[in-house]
Amino acid sequence: MVRFAQVTMADESKTVDENLYSRQIGVYGISTMKKLMGLKVLIVGLKGVGIETAKNLILAGPAAVSVFDPEPATVQDLATNVRAPYNMII
């Protein structure tokens, strides 16, 4: 059974899938989850910490996550960034 919680923001309504986000709701509460689902996040730098932060943040369910790394990917980056396309490695 899929349950949904209706969450209302100032001028928009959001529906939270309680089964999908049950752990986050249990930790953060429904009001914080509502705020999280409205976030638009930019992560700059995709070395070890940046890529792990991006992955964990995306799993939490924000509205949008953009990533940017001004440095080209190198062979050493493959140790932490498994999503780096091999043909883009310098």
Structure classification: alpha+beta
Radius of gyration: 17 Å
At the fourth level of CATH, the homologous superfamily of the largest domain is Ubiquitin-activating enzyme E1, inactive adenylation domain, subdomain 1
Mean pLDDT across the residues is 77
- CATH architecture type of the largest domain: 3-Layer(bba) Sandwich
Write down the secondary-structure element order. EEHHEHE
First-residue to last-residue Cα separation: 48 Å
Low-confidence parts lasting 5 or more residues at pLDDT below 50? 1-12
Reported for the largest beta sheet, the result is: 2 strands, antiparallel
Helix content: 25-40%
Strand order of the largest sheet: 1-2
Provide the CATH topology of the largest domain.
FAD/NAD(P)-binding domain
Annotation, overall tally of beta strands: 4
Strand content: 15-25%
| Distinct helical segment count | 3
Just give the CATH class of the largest domain.
Answer: Alpha Beta
Give the count of structural domains.
Answer: 2
**Gross geometry:** elongated
